Structures are given as C-alpha cells and as structure tokens.
Amino acid sequence: MPVEQRSHDTNNGSLPYLFSPVSDNAKQPAPLVIFLHGGRDRGTDLNVLLKWGLPRFVDLSDSLPYVFAAPQIPAEQTWADRADDVLTLLDELIVSQPVDPARVILAGFSLGSAGIWHIAALHPDRFAGLVAVSGRVPKTLAESELAALKNIPVQIFQGGQDKNLPIEDTEIFVERLRNVGGKVDLTVLPEGDHFIADEVYGNPKLQQWLISQNRREISVVA
C-alpha cells in the first residue's frame, strides 16, 4: 500500500513522517509500528526513507494489518533530540487512527536503534515490543534504565560481517538485558553486513511477530 507523506507539528518544529493506514477490512483497533531511520537517511526528503528497509517493505505491500509511521529528523539531529516529538506523534496516531495503544511496536535501524533504546527506557509502559537492527546501544543507558526494559519483548538483528558494530558488543548487551530478566532474541545473519534491513524487515516471521505482541499480556505476566 503506497505510503502517504505527512507532517506533525511540535514545539521543536515540524516532524515529517511517512504514514500507512491499516487495511480497509480491519474491524478492530490495530497494532502501530513506528520506525526510526538510520543516520544516513536524515534530512528533509522523505523519499529517501522509501529506498530500503521497513518503509520500502510497507510501500510495496498490498495491505498490512498494522498502522505504520516513520518520522524523519534533520541531518544535525539524533533521535534523543526528538524523543518527546516521537511520543507526541504516537499520541496523535492513537487518537486519530484505529490504533490499539497496548500494541505499539518501536523499531529502528542503526542510529534509529539507539533511539528506540533511549525512548523505550524512559517510557517502558508505552511499548509492546522493540526491534533493533544493526544498532549500537547507547553507552549512557544506566542499569536502572536497562531494567525498565525487562518486560518488553525485544528482537535484535545484526550482520555477522558488520564493520560498524562489533558482534561482541551486542552479545554483551544481550547478556546484560537477560540478566535483569529481559526477553530478548538475538538473530545474527552470518554473511550480512551493516545494511541488512531489507532482509530483516521483509521476513514473514518478523512481520507476524510485529502484530503478535500485546502489552496487556506483558502486564499479566509481570
């Protein structure tokens, strides 16, 4: 389903974003997937996001069982700079779309993965799942913030040949998260480099996972 180009007004200026509604035959509130792009896709042209990864997958799909949004930040900014704006966009979509607030997934690639750790650690009650692809974990993430993530199911994907991110660093983080009770799956693509987003986000198993997470179930388990 071709995506729309929209803009969200914030106190920090406009936040342009790609948007795709849930399929027309959806009868119940749907999951929401918010995607945070990597560093090289920053700027003012939303078409850049459509060249690959999850935005490209959504744009080329006939219909999907979730609402999708992918904001874009300017070249000089990081996702930590616009964390509050991502949350207000989330709130706007919950009000304006048939979105189930208990089924919000935050996904990211590279710089965007660093963003999802930052945002989710500060607001763990807002998300039913996290997907981090080729992403470094912020070194500023304290143990208390890490522990806040323990009830959120996490999927981490990394290429075995990623020159930008040592696999050892990712494995250490996964162990830390599991030690505080985190539910995390690490998938390593042995021949993959840093740019594995097309292969990861187009995987049917991950697409099914995106719509299977529910924060209500997390609360019951906790």
UniProtKB/TrEMBL annotation:
GO molecular function, one term: hydrolase activity
Presence of keyword Nucleotide-binding: no
Keywords: Signal
Signal peptide region: none
Domain Phospholipase/carboxylesterase/thioesterase intervals: 82-197
Coiled coil (residue ranges): none
InterPro entries in the cross-refs: AB_hydrolase_fold (IPR029058), Plant_Biomass_Hydrol_Est (IPR050955), PLipase/COase/thioEstase (IPR003140)
Protein name, UniProt field: Peptidase
Species name: Nostoc commune UTEX 584
